[in-house]
Amino acid sequence: MSVVYLAINEKANKTWAVKEIRSGSELGMEAVRERMIAETELLKHLRHPGLPVIVDVIDEGEGFLIVMDYIEGKSLKEVLAREGAQSQERTLLWGKQLCGVLSYLHEQEPPVIYRDMKPSNIMVQPDGSLKLIDFGTARELRDVYAEDDTICLGTPGYAAPEQWEGCGQTDARTDIYCLGMVLYEIVTGQGPEKTFCDRKPVQLQKPGLSAGLEEILRKCTQRDPGQRFQSCRELIYALEHYREMDLRWRKKQKRRLSLFLAAALASLLCFLGAFYAWHMEVRLEKDTYRARLEQIASSVTKAEKAEACERAIRLNPGREEGYLELLGQVFLTVEEDGTVCFTREEDELLRKIFNQKAADGKTYEMHLGKNRKGYERVAYELGLAYYYDYEGEGSKSYGVKWLNIAAEGDTLPLSCRERALRLGTIGAYYSQIGQVNRAGDARVSYGDYWRDLTALAAGNLVRLDNAVTALRTYQELAAQVHGRALEFRQAGISRGEMEEELRGIRQHLKEDFADVNWEEPGLEEMRSRLMYLLEEAGRQLDMVYGRNGEKEKGEKYGECGTDAGSLS
Fold first, then answer.
1. Helix or strand (DSSP H, E) at 211
2. What is the distance between the alpha carbons of residues 540 and 546, in angstroms, rounded to a whole number?
3. What gap in Å lies between CA 330 and CA 345, rounded to an integer?
4. CB 56 within 8 A of CB 67
5. Edge-to-edge strand order for the sheet containing 74-75?
6. Which of 384, 410, 461, 493 is the most exposed place for a label (fewest CB within 10 A)?
7. Which residues contact 387 (CB under 8 A, 6 or more apart)?
8. Sheet strands (E) in 107-214
9. Is 425 helix (H, G, I), strand (E, B) or coil?
């Protein structure tokens, strides 16, 4: 029906393919003209790397010329005739390229159905990419039948049943059938018969190929369009995941999955067993730990209680109860005279316990430190013990470390953290009181010291903490007024300010302790001690400021000062 020439535009140095349509066609010139115009109009609006581009149409009356892109390369039919069957990898690559072209056509508005997919209509370019040519049957039907050329319903062997049997409407699934036949010929090197029923399976034609590819070709070429892939995008996905359609691969994956599930089940059972064993161990440990705590309460002597506490701590050094019981039941017991003495020997025993190493090489204190809430509680109680009770008089500087741990945490009540902060601040003064720098100036600012001391005693300490803590705090303030009134005066603290604090303590005793049971061990003795300190502090103010408030010699008052530690 036509002759194709290679033409060269000498000025532009550009090559074109020129198709000359002659009037000798059996269809008649008008029918040919209509068909060619339809084909060129169709291609003019399509732009895809896998399609040729129409440049111009020249009507010469008895014939006309179609100028289009010159596609360098050979037809797929020539390539297969020369090279034979292609590899599975190349078949899949070309299949995805052709699917991309068909998908582009099918997604046009309205969709374009190619209807004549065969090796002679596919050009293989030098870089291996493909182009689809000859859109003669994309729009119009023809009345001529020829085995190797386009006929009204496609080419026998490649055409879908609905094309050559007249048993249905052609659509996108028709092109999928034709593409399946082309891929079969690419991978086997054997052209299809006129009906696909007589073809041999791919694996018989070329042993060793994937059963997944066989399944894809089988599904592409089903007689019933409803059993084929329903779109080219679906077919592209199958070509990209052909192994998932490979029955042998599926069986292999099932075996792997079965092994994985078996291993996972075994792991789960092991985990559950380990978890149950751990749970039982923890439960047993808790029961044993609880028994040890009960043994502490039932012990009579301090030595027995101390041994029971140590056994509880060794059982689980990360729990705080054993340390708290050691402090409360052994170290900080109230004597008959109302005093509490945290001795040097008890301090050494506690340090020894903290530094003892567990089986993992970490110290007991490190294990307790992992229990942040418990560690901060122990630090708070231990800081108070050092501050108030060490050797019966208290060691403020020894308690600084533990009080700072409690103050910097976030698990204790706010009142406890604030008290720990103030006590730690005051304790830090004691390591510097009496020391001077190179210039001869005192390192401690007694003005700051006084403000921190009075802040410590502010508020209702009985409600914020307890009666014992309140009495100890007031004793500390009264003892410091008695022992350091001269230093406070020299720092600018007036007699009135100090007397106001002493009166405040008496007011707290009157109002805050209304509901306190003074018959509890040691409380009455502590109150008596506080009243004595208040009286002594008042006398000291008279000595420093004079009974009438007149200034006397500082040297005289300094000689009368009493060490605060001896009164606290």
1. helix 211-220
2. 9
3. 12
4. yes
5. 74-75, 122-124, 130-132
6. 410
7. 394, 395, 396, 398, 399, 403, 423, 427
8. 122-124, 130-132
9. helix
Length reported for the chain: 568
Distance of CA 143 to CAs 103, 169, 560, Å? 28, 18, 135
Q: CA 427, CA 376: separation in Å to the nearest integer?
A: 18
User: Which structure tokens are listed for 324?
Assistant: 């708290």
DSSP label at 201? P
How do residues 128-164 score in pLDDT, each as one tens digit?
899 988 776 664 334 434 444 444 556 788 888 887 7
Cα(49)–Cα(72) distance, rounded to whole angstroms?
Answer: 14
Q: How confident is residue 359, by pLDDT bands cut at 50, 70 and 90?
A: confident
- As a whole number of angstroms, the distance between CA 24 and CA 32 comes to 10
d(Cα 397, Cα 14) in Å, to the nearest integer?
A: 97
Q: What is the pLDDT of residues 33-72, one digit of tens each?
A: 777 777 777 777 788 889 888 888 887 777 788 888 888 8
- Tokens for 154, please give them: 């496609």
Q: Are 51 and 101 in contact (CB under 8 A)?
A: yes
How far is it, in rounded angstroms, from Cα 453 to Cα 187? Answer: 95
Amino acid at 82: R
- Look up the pTM and report it: 0.43
List, for residues 179-221, the tens digit of each pLDDT value.
Answer: 999 999 998 888 776 444 556 666 666 777 788 888 888 899 8
**Confidence (pLDDT) at 193:** 61
Q: Provide the residue type at 186 as one letter.
A: I
Whole-angstrom distance, CA of residue 385 vs CA of residue 399 = 8
Q: What is the dihedral of CA 475, 481, 482, 484, to 10 degrees?
A: 130
Percent of the chain clearing pLDDT 70 (strictly above): 80
Residues 6+ apart with CB under 8 A from 419: 456, 464, 465, 469
Other Cβ atoms within 10 Å of 471 Cβ, number:
26
Q: Which amino acid is at 266?
A: A
Q: How much helix, strand and coil, in percent to the nearest 5, is found in the chain?
A: 60, 10, 35
Rounded mean pLDDT, 280-296 = 69
From CA 160, how far away is CA 179, in angstroms rounded? 10
Coil, strand or helix: which one is 523? helix
Strands 14-21 and 54-59: unpaired
Summary mean pLDDT of the chain: 81
Q: Which residue matches tokens 């008695």?
A: 482
Residue 313: both structure tokens together: 């701590």
Structure tokens at 161: 């049943």
